[in-house]
Amino acid sequence: MKEWSRARKIWVGTSLVLVLTVGTVVYKLADRYLIEHVEAVVTTTNAGTTVESAHATYDDMNYNSDNESISIKKVQTGSGSDMITYFVADVTLKNGTTLQTALADNKFGRNITENTSTIAENNNAILAINGDYYGFRNDGVIIRNGTLYRDEPVRDGLAMFQDGTMKSYDEKTVSSSDLLAQGVTNTFSFGPILLKDGQVTSDFEHVEIDTNFGNRSIQDANPRTGIGIIAPNHYVLVVVDGRSRNYSRGMTLNEFASLFQELGCTDAYNLDGGGSSTMYFMGNVINNPQGKQQERGVSDIIYVGA
């Protein structure tokens, strides 16, 4: 009986340690990937402008106003299991209009997400793509709409300027104060840099962005989101569908960089892809997120406003 009682105590003790260990691991994972950590609440001054919805087809979509010109093309290449489907938005901004950014739920922090379409609608966007999903990490240099939210330099970033230009840079060698002094309005921290001065920056066969869970190696064919620039205030936003048999296999990073070069861009930068890749236009998601027309919540968007 005493031996049985002792064995029982050992079993109970071992089980308790196991439960506590598993519980700790689960909590840490939830804290890292699920629990919202709000660091700042953004106050908006949205005047409530509405966008009149216009008829648009999936093959040729256009929007023109005094402030912006947008032309979107759906392109399909290849066939069968090698087919690639992608959307190219050619955007020219005029009269001081700039590309804008918005955060999920108007809050800055980790694990705060909304669908790209929801963020777009809340900000009266005409056109929007997902951003860099900054909330998946706790590092990087994050400036949005002229406000510095995070200053933990670790990788190659993208800076967008008030004068309608953009350039990639090394977060570790350029300070956030210098960026702001130079007129930077927004930065993105993902990568890699695809084009610099019209040239593909490297062979992307063995690129790893981070060692974060779920984001280890991205060189294979995947859904993609990226931004390029042809001239000041003339941008190209590209979303590639993927993971959908006989509709789109996605693109490799080499293919993605070459595409921006073919489109005439001088500089281009890779944003968050995979299930996040989404393009929204005039009230509709026009691509096929996650290969099943289902959006995934993201931290932020880049958009053209009304």
UniProtKB/TrEMBL annotation:
<dbReference type="InterPro" id="IPR018711">
    <property type="entry name" value="NAGPA"/>
</dbReference>
<dbReference type="Pfam" id="PF09992">
    <property type="entry name" value="NAGPA"/>
</dbReference>
<keyword id="KW-0378">Hydrolase</keyword>
<feature type="domain" description="Phosphodiester glycosidase">
    <location>
        <begin position="123"/>
        <end position="304"/>
    </location>
</feature>
<protein>
    <submittedName>
        <fullName>Phosphodiester glycosidase family protein</fullName>
    </submittedName>
</protein>
<dbReference type="GO" id="GO:0016798">
    <property type="term" value="F:hydrolase activity, acting on glycosyl bonds"/>
</dbReference>
<keyword id="KW-0326">Glycosidase</keyword>
